[in-house]
Amino acid sequence: MPDLLLLGLIGGLTLLLLLTLLAFAGYSGLLTGVTVSAGSPPIHNITVAYKFHVGSYGHIGQFFTESCSISPKLRSIAVYYDNPHTVPHEKCRCAVGSILSEGEESPSPELIHLYQKFGFKVFSFPAPSHVVTATFPYTTPLSIWLAARRVHPALDTYIKVRHRYSTWRVVTQIPWVVTEKVVQDMRNK
């Protein structure tokens, strides 16, 4: 009888563990769709401190950590130049860093100097007039992994279906992570 009770307890705990993992995956966005739309940009003129990386997007976490350790209260940003589903991982390019200022506000010279001291470059992005935006929830680190595998295909599908412009500036907004890439319309080739 004690063996049967022990087996039942192990089975119950295993079931609870599986349910917890499923709930965590669901909370992280496993069952959430990627929302893609076109319109005015979610961000405007921004000044960014960044480091450029060539290689797998899976290895950029250290850049986020370094950027956040310099000024933890600033929002992080990543600009991904390549689709990891079509470009070899070792050739994928991105810039990772922090948003120093947004809109008409200018970043303080001290903040710029601080980031430059750690090897970051500073660049200002002008506000685009029209963008394609993809939104996916960011609730856990698993959300980033899920977004990396689902956002690019959703953007590519949206762009292929709606051929409105010959060149698109694509901005993917995941809270604290913004992805931007320029896509050429296939009609021009």
From TrEMBL:
One of its GO terms (biological process) is reticulophagy. GO terms for cellular component: autophagosome membrane; endoplasmic reticulum membrane; nucleus; replication fork. InterPro entries: Reg_factor_effector_dom_sf. Transmembrane segments: none annotated. This is Testis-expressed protein 264. Signal peptide: none annotated.
